[in-house]
Amino acid sequence: MSKSIFSKIICCCLILSVVQFAQAQKGKFDFSEEKNVYNQIADVPVLTKDGTQKLSVLYSRSPLIVALIFTRCTGICSPLLLNLSEQISHLHTDPKENFKVLVISFDPRDQFEDMARMAKQYARENDPNWIFAVTPQISELTSSLAFNPVWDEDRQQLDHEALLSGINTDGYVTKNLIGLRDQQAIYSLIKSINNEFILSYPLPGNNNFLSCFSYDPSTGKKSWSWGMFLLVLPAIIAAGIVTILVNQKKTLHHN
Q1: For the residues of 131-194, what is the DSSP string, one character each?
Q2: Other CB atoms closer than 10 Å to residue 183's CB: what's the count?
Q3: Model's pTM, two decimal places?
Q4: Is residue 226 a contact partner of residue 210, using CB atoms and an 8 Å limit?
Q5: Which of 7, 13, 99, 182 has the most CB atoms lying inside 10 A of its own CB?
Q6: Are 68 and 87 in contact (CB under 8 A)?
């Protein structure tokens, strides 16, 4: 009986190891919100209602929440801005937590006039805390934020993530948010760009042998680690024992 149990456990472990290896090779553990965090945003020229200036001029005056959109979008852009505006309006932030929202187009077809119309559409044309802008160096900006829109020829649209990036007064990306987020997430973003402490968990790395995932900072990829195997090992052993006991009971019953 002990030999049989041992054989089945070894078999289960081998299967789990194969699955782990296959998943690691596929590189599916790609957490977009971690991309380019603590990297510096490209200091591109931006055209706003106050004229053309370097992006560094804006973030040196006040930390920024950067919303990447385009005016011809028929998808997530409008919900993203509406949600952001609503969540900010309900926040009660500390006076020291200052910030501005930079809404900037990543579509080469957009001109500043298009962004000005969008500002008016959202009743933000006279709000000093909201800046609508375009830039002639779109690729440099999007690359620095690891933002990669894809042109859909059939829909004549740019497919993209709903991205908000927090930029502190030194121009560094402190936090990214993907999708429509609640007040708590937006407030956490505001705190991060004001260089306030945010309770978080460290990314797993090679120096943490018992972590469930390993993180490769050079690729931004995660893969399963030994901690995940040890986490599920008791369940595998229990399942193996139950299987053996059930089979043994059936054998005794037949005899």
Answers
A1: EEEB-S-HHHHHHHTT---EEETTTTEEE---EEEEE-TTSBEEEEEESS--HHHHHHHHHHHT
A2: 14
A3: 0.67
A4: yes
A5: 99
A6: no
Tokens of 34: 């971690």
Q: Radius of gyration (Cα) for the chain, nearest Å?
A: 25
Say if residues 192 and 166 touch (Cβ distance below 8 Å).
yes
- Architecture field, domain 39-192: 3-Layer(aba) Sandwich (3.40)
Averaged pLDDT, groups of 10, the chain, 255 residues long: 48 43 39 78 97 97 97 93 94 79 96 97 94 97 93 85 95 94 93 78 50 51 61 77 78 67
How far is Cα 125 from Cα 142, in angstroms, rounded to an integer? Answer: 24
Residue holding tokens 């931006």?
A: 46
How many angstroms separate the CA atoms of 57 and 229, rounded?
50
From 150, 221, 192, select the one nearest 66 (Cα to Cα): 192
Rounded to 10 degrees, the C-alpha dihedral 86/91/95/97 comes to -80
